[in-house]
Design a protein that fits this description.
about 0% strand, single chain, flat, about 80 residues
Length: about 80
């Protein structure tokens, strides 16, 4: 969920020494039905990379690795 992603980003940033106003306590998950106006989203909107990986013989790293790398780069851009 988007809330889980936000929690992961905040935790990663804090683990890497970032000073944040946000904390895990400030993340509040909101169901799609709770938005105004209600947003229609598909139940499964994950990006399917299987055709890309098969065509080009790629192995995609876990998404967490990309988030960690990006957060570290952002922190270092002070």
């Amino acid at each position: 969920s988007r809330a889980d992603l936000a929690l992961f980003i905040i935790a990663t940033a804090l683990e890497n020494g970032a000073k944040l106003m946000a904390t895990p306590d400030t993340v509040i998950g909101v169901p799609t039905s709770g938005t105004f106006p209600a947003v229609k989203r598909p139940l499964n909107s994950r990006l399917n990379t299987s055709k890309l990986c098969d065509t080009f013989e790629l192995t995609m790293p876990p998404w967490e690795e990309g988030v960690i790398q990006t957060v570290k780069e952002v922190i270092s851009c002070k």
